[in-house]
Amino acid sequence: MALIKLSTTERRRFSAFFTCLVLAVFAWIFTALSNSYNFTVKEVLSYKNTPQKRAFHSLQPDTVNATMQGTGWQMFFSKMKNENKVIGVDLRTLDNKDFVVLSSQLKQINDSKEFDEQVVSFSPDTLYFDFSDRAVKKVPVRLLTGIKYQHQFAQSNDISVSPSYVTLNGPGNVIDKIKTWNTDSLILDSVNETIKTRVDFQPVKEGNISIYPKSVQVVIPVDEFTEKTVLIPVKLLNNHNYYKVKLFPQKVKVTFTTSLSRYAEMDEDFFEASADLSLWQDNGYNTLPVKLTRVPAYCKITKIEPQNVDFIIRK
User: Fold this and answer.
1) How far, rounded to the nearest angstrom, does the alpha carbon of residue 7 sit from its chain's CA centroid?
2) What integer is the mean pLDDT of 132-158?
3) What is d(CA 102, CA 121) in angstroms, rounded to the nearest whole number?
């Protein structure tokens, strides 16, 4: 196909025409987006001024379709963000009604300045609620943790959670089923010192339940651990016929890990070892296995020597 050759004048005219066309398109788009439009977006409802003497349960989802009035630019950017805005709904009227009319709060919602566009209407416009008797209950706090310790470090004492109970306020038939309330997960890595921190509670999933307080103070004692060995006498159990029994050896060597802060005080008095003579009487055992029947908290047994003891019975 033969190429069309334009003269210098024709090329200048074509360039001017194309430039004017582009400018006209941009001018039209700018003018169109500057006009006012009504458009619908989905909004999330956030309740405030909830009734203090009435427990409520919403009978519809926590989102509504809001018809907004704004410029084409606002509509364009609202669609681009693709995120739901939050609308605060005042529930003060639920003290003597079981519904809330959103259109009656339009001025209040638009004055909140949570968004640039103006709300024109809602669908649905009326929110209905179910009510039940409000009750108050205290339940234990359940701390959720995922803690990894540095080598030779570990928890050295009981965890302190303050307060240890949380107060629930809501419908009696709902909070009666709640036995504990979980905290957010406390996730830490390479811990080598005592943990002192504040942890929030997991959020309430139902809008008609409130909790107090909103967080707890957590203290987790952490210490470095080392090994220690003590000799513990073996106690004979279930000698129902009162035989004269002599054990060999009479003491066993127990190796365990303990925190450095408790190393000096840890001795044989904190432990108890036993051997069960009924294993010989009922099952014919020739040696008796040694079991530790008392071990201090946060001590880990690493070795018992010997694990079985010999015995001589004199009838």
Assistant:
1) 74
2) 91
3) 8
In angstroms, the CA 296 to CA 37 distance is 74
Domain 134-220, architecture per CATH? Beta Complex (2.170)
d(CA 129, CA 217): 36
Gap between the Cα atoms of 37 and 117, Å rounded: 10
| C-alpha distances out from residue 220 to 109, 136, 183, 190, 266, Å | 46, 30, 15, 14, 21
From CA 49, how far away is CA 145, in angstroms rounded? Answer: 34
- CB atoms near residue 89 (< 10 Å): 19
CATH of domain 225-314: 2.170.120.30
> Strand 36-48 relative to strand 153-155: parallel, antiparallel, unpaired?
unpaired
Average pLDDT score over residue span 242-246: 87
Instruction: Say how many CA atoms lie within 13 Å of 273 toward its Cβ.
Output: 24
Residues 6+ away with beta carbon under 8 Å from 160:
217, 218, 219, 220
Lookup: tokens for 183: 């905290």
SS3 assignment, position 265: coil
CA distances from 202 to 93, 137, 252 (A): 29, 17, 49
pTM: 0.59
C-alpha R_g of the chain: 38
Query: How would you classify residue 176: left for phi > 0, otherwise alpha for psi between -120 and 50, otherwise beta?
Result: alpha
Give, in degrees to the nearest 5, the angle at Cα 43 between 37 and 45. 140
Strand partners, 215: 200
**Which residue reads 């203090």 in tokens?**
52
Domain ranges of the chain: 34-132, 134-220, 225-314
pLDDT at 1: 46
